[in-house]
Amino acid sequence: MWIPTEHEKYGVVIASFRGTVPYGLSLEIGDTVQILEKSDGWFRGFALKNPNIKGIFPSSYVHLKTAFVKNKGQFEMVIPTEDSVITEMTSTLRDWGAMWKQLYVRNEGDLFHRLWHIMNEILDLRRQVLVGHLTHDRMKDVKRHITARLDWGNEQLGLDLVPRKEYAMVDPEDISITELYRLMEHRHRKKDTPVQASSHQLFVQMKSLMCSNLGEELEVIFSLFDSKENRPISERFFLRLNRNGLPKAPEKPERHCSLFVDLGSSELRRDIYITVHIIRIGRMGAGEKKNACSVQYRRPFGCAVLSIADLLTGETKDDLVLKVYMCNTESEWYQIHENIIKKLNARYNLTGSNAGLAVSLQLLHGDMEQVRREYSSVFSHGVSVTRKLGFSSIIMPGEMRNDLYITIERGEFEKGGKSVARNVEVTMLIVEGSGQTLKDAVSFGSGEPPASEYHSFVLYHNNSPRWAELLKLPIPVDKFRGAHLRFEFRHCSTKEKGEKKLFGFSFVPLMQEDGRTLPDGTHELIVHKCEENTNLQDATRYLKLPFSKGVLLGNTNQAPKTSKESFWITSFLCSTKLTQNGDMLDLLKWRTHPDKITGCLSKLKEIDGSEIVKFLQDTLDTLFGILDENSQKYGSKVFDSLVHIINLLQDSKFHHFKPVMDTYIESHFAGALAYRDLIKVLKWYVDRITEAERQEHIQEVLKAQEYIFKYIVQSRRLFSLATGGQHEDEFRCCIQELLLSVRFFLSQESKGSGALSQSQAVFLSSFPAVYSELLKLFDVREVANLVQDTLGSLPTIVHVDEALQAVKLQCIGKTVESQLYTNPDSRYILLPVVLHHLHTHLQEQKDLIMCARILSNVFCLIRKNSSEKSVLEEIDVIVASLLDILLRTILEITSRPQPSGSAARLQFQDVTGEFVACLLSLLRQMTDRHYQQLLDSFNTKEELRDFLLQLFTVFRILIRPEMFPKDWTVMRLVANNVIITTVLYLSDALRKNFLNENFDYKIWDSYFYLAVIFINQLCLQLEMFTPSKKKKVLEKYGDMRVTMGCEIFSMWQNLGEHKLHFIPALIGPFLEVTLIPQPDLRNVMIPIFHDMMDWEHRHSGNFKQVEAKLIDKLDSLMSEGKGDETYRELFNSILLKKIERETWRESGVSLIATVTRLMERLLDYRDCMKVGEVDGKKIGCTVSLLNFYKTELNKEEMYIRYIHKLYDLHLKAQNFTEAAYTLLLYDELLEWSERPLREFLSYPLQTEWQRKEHLHLAVIQNFDRGKCWENGIILCRKIAEQYESYYDYRNLSKMRMMEASFYDKIMDQQRLEPEFFRVGFYGKKFPFFLRNKEFVCRGHDYERLEAFQQRMLGEFPQAIAMQHANQPDETIFQAEAQYLQIYAVTPIPESQEVLQREGVPDNIKSFYKVNHIWKFRYDRPFHKGPKDKENEFKSLWVERTSLSLVQSLPGISRWFEVDKREVVEMSPLENAIEVLENKNQQLKTLISQCQTRQMQNSNPLTMCLNGVIDAAVNGGVSRYQEAFFVKEYILSHPEDGEKIARLRELMLEQAQILEFGLAVHEKFVPQDMRPLHKKLVDQFFVMKSSLGIQDFSACLQASPVHFPNGSPRVCRNSAPASMSPDGTRVIPRRSPLSYPAANRYSSSSLSSQASAEVSNITGQSESSDEVFNMQPSPSTSSLSSTHSASPNVTSSAPSSARASPLLSDKHKHSRENACLSPRERPCSAIYPTPVEPSQRLLLFNHIGDGPLPRSDPNLSAPEKAVNPTPSSWSLDSGQEARNMANGGKLTSPPVPPRPTQTASPARHTTSSFSPSPAGRSPLKGPGQSFTPSPVEHHSPGLLSNSPVLSGSYSSGISSLSRCSTSETSGFESQAPEPSTPGPGPGSSGYGGPEEPARRDSKTPPPYSVYERTLRRPVPLPHGLSIPAPPEPPALPPKPPTPRPGHLENGTRRTEAGPRPRPLPRKVSQL
After folding, report:
1. Given the DSSP bridges, would you call strands 1360-1361 and 1379-1388 parallel, antiparallel or unpaired?
2. Could you say which DSSP state residue 1435 is in?
3. Which of 79, 977, 1007, 1854 has its Cβ near the most Cβ atoms within 10 Å?
């Protein structure tokens, strides 16, 4: 049975539990669980990390911990009762754990490892705390370490700042908001701006002296030297080195490491140096022999210096090597460091041994305690301490020092009978009064133990030696009296004995008889001569002698023997016990000399402060003793002395002695009667203030009033204790009178002089310190009233001295901080005064920092839930006095510009933050009653309105992200809780006062705006928080967004008809709120949109405003990352449900559907635009969205924005052609007008013309970069027209040059033909814009199928590649997966004409093969019926799939969706026909290229000929004969008669081509290939015989289909061609191999000789060039000539094996075609898919459009609708087309007398249109010039009015002017004149007024009809019919025009009528 737990509430999992039992809860080790119930060894509960999942788990798996239960019951909350630091540590480490792993994933290795170390440290510290064995101090230290590390980690990981008090987390609910702000601000400031340490320590470690020839021991002496004052500032650090230059005692670190302590910040400057003096111990001369002298001397060796400023970087200077210098002369040794610092190079040089001193230096910041804590490693092994000379900058009480510093300066000695100067050594000893030498009292420096005597170094042969050695003598105080220093002087001999001979001595006593010590300064001592054996042990013998040349002791008659020799020392005493000041001694001994008291008191002010504080207690006892002795006489003097001492302690140097005085007052002061005299003198001074001219002394008295009152109060307490409280009333009366005088003096206004106000300021600054003293004797209320009266007496006029105003405010501040104010009784008395002064200052906006501090302190004392009556009354007073001014102050501060300096900015932020915290504190304290009183206090609605507007504005300011630092989430949440509470209180006032007739739009708008930005705050988006943080926030505050959302809904419902005021303004804000992923909030807010739609529909009958705003805002908001798929579904479902019963349901559903579809695309767009996504996905998605805005929403501005986003994507992906097409979309929305356009995107303010020009140039540049120069040429011409119309010849010239350069690039640069791939995206996991759609994609350069497949699978890593090309079924469409189906497809070029013309170079053709492609084809071979193993061609069918795209490639994307799919089956016969056609075409092309020498060598032709002939011999073509020419097939397929004939023709044609090819091959084949050529010739005859062809004429007669007029492939001119006179002559038959070698062949036909030869072979009487016409007809394949399909068609056809669409059926005799009426003429195979006239019009619009938009503002509707492309069938052959379409089968071309024909099913797959020359020229002028471009289009008039043109063009065979000639004739045929009537070129729709323009033009066409490399003209291609003008045409032809109507010629259209545009014109706003 499950029982609710009582005590077992909380535990930690100690072993992982898998939860495999029923209802089991899976737990991991370390999880914390809350237990709800228990039963027989099992618990039921939940893990705190996931409280929603409850389950059971074994009780043995959980370690129980004590916990406190809050809110017992269903919603109980368990709080562990462990130390709060432990709780925080645990939860923080859990949060860090997940983030730590993410650091590893993100490759942030440095932070990963640092955090790992910190986490381990925290875990170790946690163990120490949990064990509980730490002392109180150690526990405090550990907690400090823990919190420091927690804060560091939180900062590094970007987590929140935790407010703490005493290392424990603070609950914001338990303290006031102002206190919370201060805690946060303190921690933030501590984190951001580390406090500059005022104290520093220098760590020095001696490593070694590197020198080549040491051999002697050394002494190294470090000290700090001030080069500015030219004196040492520290003691010395002394260490000894052994003979190897290493420290002598390496096992004792304190001997070679030292810490120079107490360096102030002022001493870290450039002119402070570390000096190092090195003394060697050894022989006198460094180079002396070893046996010269056995005595060791101290001798100078070298010196090194380093500026301390070099260490300020804070880095450890490990192994720093200092250069060691030596002075040039030893006499300069004393100042060598100065010379090195001053760089006096002449006085020193490097030591001879190039010595270097290796040291380690580090500057440590902080006082000693801090340094010990932070640099514990320095102290772990021991370190000596080197102090500063003298006292530190701050003298601490209790510091015991008694150090005498002696500097051995110099001496002046006589030669002493020697010829050379002496080598003087000084020995110093300290001799006690008893005559004994004081042991261990001479310190050479830290690091070396003290010694009993000192030996100076020796300077060689120097009678005036200068040593400048500093020594410290730590002599005990009791040894000072009677002790003296003795200096003994010895001459050091350099002879063998090395004796030291005593020749004199000096001495000096340490203390004078009156008790004064040796004065500081330099002393010149007398050198007393003596002998070697003089006994100096008996000091009494020489102490009577004079010791100094200035002072004589003892017997003055005893004169010194000589005064020539002198010795100088400098002394400096640093003692806390001894004094050198006689006045101080006189004062302390006042009783011995009563007559000197007045003088001593007067001199006290002149005594140094350090002397006074040393004897502070004695001095104070002396003063009060004198006061007791005679108060009348000395009262005033003692008072003044006391004031002097009190003010002395205000100095920072002696500040720490204040506690000494406090202790004295509490424990040692005994002046019970002193209070009377002190009060009396103080009142006398206060009364004189207003009259006195000089106020300095009075101000000194007022400054000391705190301690004067302390003495008064303590004196009175002592008196009361002694007398039992006598004279109490008298004392009170004295105090009252004193304060009355103060009030009078304070109330005086300063008239002219500032002295009075200065005195007032001095009094006010120290007055608050008196409160605590008065409280010792008076009641709280009494003191409060006294203070209130005193502060109330201050003058309130505003124009008083500003300095006084500031001090007055400081006084108020100190009052609020005082103990007096903390008592509620006194606070209520003082509060009005405080608020009065605050109000005054805030009104003037003065001293805001101080005001903020005071207010903060006021609110700090008011806890949150204080419901005490006194607190509520205080809040009443504060609200009435300060709320309004507080709001105004915050508005004023935040509206100011922020200061520029960092310090000023911080101060500015602090002030703002403090005022905000005060306002929040006040609002949190306010109850219903306060709010009601506040609202009732407003007399008019205008006042209430202003107040509410002010409050809402301030709230909006508080919500700003910059209001608090980003990691202050705790503060933000508290602020938001206060704001929402206040808003809920005030919304009622809004409803009651500002609705209906009192409606106020501004205040309601402000309210809604506040609510919206409140909900949108980043700190309230709980979804972004960690689970633990989210749980804490929800427990404490709930989800405040939902609360505010409900309030918005409630207020919106109250608006009624006033809702119309907020439509559409609030749609955007409300939409932003609904996009927040909070289900409850969405459910509350989405219905508001229904309400808006309803009200707008009521008002205007539609909801266009709602729709427009929704669409606009959705785009911007979703692009910011807001919204998700759930929102889309919720939006759709909620609103559809809401509008079910509305009358406007249909239009509403439409709107919701549109918005939902937009969301789909926007979500896709956002997902695709993520950083990791590939460019292809981004581009595809942008295209989808762009089209949606254009077609469905008609949003021009959004459309243009996405055009530019797409453009940027293309540029980034280097898709320059696509980028150009994309930018062209915007270009087409503009016109060449002067309308001004506003700034938009990156475009400046400019005219429409300028913007269009800019776009044109950008598009041209991108076409150039994308090698799409043909398109660039068109645009160059268009912009050139504009420049020409404006006579801008400079730019016109540039354009023409650019155009010319494009032509050059077309001819000179190589362009790769891309592959095309069909991609199917199947399955529901694809984005909407791809889902279950198929696309054709243009591949990258060199990208083949396998590479493309890999790329696509890389872009969609979850996708599964389908391995077949069949259409997928419905299960694949609906699958929850991604399937990719990819295979290569073959493009079907739109423009056939250029491709069919011979003489056009391949680099021109290559453009038309792969550009402007709408249709693609894919063939899949299969066998139908039984497969014949002997001949598989009998059953080989082909399934042909034709794909039509929505736009042509290339376009604005590299891929476009398939719009239409058609599948047809080709019979084996049709397949065979196509294969042969392709192969014949390939052969023709190769032969032509070989003739014109376009090939580098003849190998391609050789291989092709070999392949065809060899295959034919071995059964290739013969297989077709076996399959289709047998009787069984012909009888069983009577309908295929024409096709069989066609196949026969092709086989014969192939034989002709092969024969001609062999003739060409013979001419060009290299010598080494001759054998192969011979073999081919032989095999060719075998092939002919295998085909049964002996004679072509015989074959033709035997053909099943009769061709009476020659070869079926002959292309006849529809006009009589100019022929050679010998053209019909019969020439004796020859072999094709017997052609003369010198024969020249034109580029596309045989010479007349070869033609004649073949004519004889075939028995033809036609012109020889008609027999072997090798030119491709207009219907030939668009594929590259080097490619053809093999007989076995592959299932996935890459471009290397592309098959063309069906080849044309133009095999009718040209004369027959010429005789047929337009209706009777056959439909050319180049247009095999007949369409209805209406469809045809649409199709033709599509043809020229390419991928550009098909909305041309420059064309009228009729122009757009007409077919601009002359087809090869007449315009009135629609019925024929329909018949062909319905026939469904393809037969041979019609042969007379059978004029009818049907179409093959295969023709349904393609719609390849051959555009013909356009009828519009870009030239200006009335006449149209002829432009033989394969892509320009005729006007409809030209097409419909000329039957000649119709007949000529519909046959698909051009009327050519033949240029091939017979060599024997020497005659070149001329073309007929253009004006010749008949079906020739001259009547092809051009003439009349166009002639002059054409004749005047000198520009040759780019596709020139003249052969560049041959002297004679060559035949023109069949696809182009060109008149032969005497001069070349006017302008070159244009490349394929994406838009037939848009790329217009220069002739201006005159048709009137509006220009339809695709979108509403809003460009003027763009």
Report:
1. parallel
2. T
3. 1854
List 306's β-bridge partners, or say none: 274
- Judged on CB neighbours under 10 Å (0-12, 13-18, 19+), 1079 is exposed
Cα radius of gyration (the chain):
55
Residue 779: name the closest of 716, 826, 740 by CA.
826
Give burial (CB, 10 Å; 0-12/13-18/19+) of 862. buried
Cα separation, 1593 vs 1791, whole angstroms: 19
Q: How far, in whole angstroms, is CA 557 from its chain's centroid?
A: 93
Sign of CA dihedral 1776, 1782, 1783, 1787: positive
* CB-based burial, 1239-1254: b 16+ in 10 Å, e otherwise: ebeebeebebbbbbbe
Select from 746, 908, 799, 1748 the least CA-distant residue to 1263: 1748
Task: Pull the structure tokens for residue 444.
Answer: 């050479």
CA distance 1262 to 631: 105
- Dihedral over Cα of 334, 340, 342, 343: its sign: positive
Beta strands in 578-696 (DSSP E): none
- What stretch of H or E contains 1360? strand 1360-1361
Residue 134 CA to residue 156 CA, distance in Å, equals: 30
User: How far is residue 1670 from each of residues 1321, 1575, 1676, 1915, measured CA to CA in Å?
Assistant: 45, 24, 12, 11
Query: Residue 730 belongs to what H/E stretch?
Result: helix 728-747
Distance CA 356, CA 1150 (A): 91
Q: What average pLDDT values come out for the chain (1966 residues) when binned by 10 residues?
A: 87 92 92 91 90 92 87 75 83 88 89 92 88 82 88 90 85 87 78 64 88 83 91 91 85 83 79 91 72 76 88 68 89 91 87 81 84 79 85 64 88 80 91 87 89 92 91 87 90 77 90 80 90 81 83 43 80 77 68 69 74 75 74 75 84 77 82 80 83 77 85 85 81 86 80 72 84 84 85 67 79 87 84 87 83 87 65 84 88 77 57 89 89 90 92 92 89 94 92 87 94 93 87 90 95 91 92 93 94 92 89 87 90 92 90 91 84 76 88 88 93 93 94 93 93 95 94 95 95 96 93 93 90 93 92 91 90 93 93 80 88 93 85 88 94 92 92 91 87 79 89 72 88 90 91 92 90 91 76 41 35 35 36 33 33 35 35 33 35 37 37 35 35 38 38 39 36 38 36 38 38 37 38 37 34 32 36 39 38 38 34 34 39 41 38 41 38
DSSP secondary structure letter of residue 826: H
> d(Cα 1849, Cα 1589) in Å, to the nearest integer?
35
Kindly state the helix (H) or strand (E) to which residue 1854 belongs, with its residue range.
Answer: none
CB-based contact 1435:1423 (threshold 8 Å): yes
Q: How far apart are CA 392 and CA 1186, in angstroms?
A: 77
Token pair belonging to 232: 């040492």
Task: Provide the angle, in degrees to the nearest 10, between the axes of the packed helices 1104-1119 and 1145-1168.
Answer: 10
3-class SS at 381? coil
